[in-house]
């Protein structure tokens, strides 16, 4: 049964389920609820002022997004961040986003590279201001240009789910504090390849960018957060 059909079948207001899921997603991504932490449903019901049914539905939605794990007879837990999870997720993302970049490059748009340049300039300004939370989101905007430019809805949906899985903001902010210069240089090269209009080179550059970032991100997490599950 599709998600909307399932909710309608039990008479749940879709907007309430979406609001609860969005609130919890933000809490997880921003690190206010820690990886591996158990979600106590009774506490959330009191805090959010909601009943059990829409909360359960929202948690199922978050499980589908890869943000939580629901274990029978044990409860719901925030999905832990491990080096293995990062490597597996980022590897698949690298190939999917590379494909999106290739498809986008094959669809000429005279304004696209100017859009890239504006975002990259914003990233540079935010790095100077040391506003790495905003930098993180602007970096996501850069990738969104070529993901949405692919005009492939299935591909966009798959990438969207995977990007949500890997967006633990508190870790990524600290990562970009240390790696923003390399990040900006890489994105400059990607823009240059888009300007040349070479789909093969664009695909390879985006794929390599994400795979290289995977290794750097895993090393960073192991060094900065040695108590992280699987970081030894």
CATH homologous superfamily heading of the largest domain: GntR ligand-binding domain-like
SS element count, helices: 10
Percentage of residues in strands: under 5%
Helix content: over 70%
Low-confidence stretches: 1-12
Principal-axes geometry comes out as globular
Please explain how this structure is put together.
Helix content is 73%, strand content 4%. It is mostly helical. The chain has 2 domains: 3-78, Orthogonal Bundle (Arc Repressor Mutant, subunit A); 83-224, Up-down Bundle (Four Helix Bundle (Hemerythrin (Met), subunit A)). The chain has a 3-stranded antiparallel β-sheet with strand order 1-3-2. Strand 2 (68-71) and strand 3 (75-78) form a beta hairpin. Helix 2 (14-29) packs across helix 4 (52-64) and helix 5 (83-105) runs antiparallel to helix 10. The longest helix is centred in the last third of the chain and has 28 residues, at 169-196. It is globular, with a radius of gyration of 19 Å.
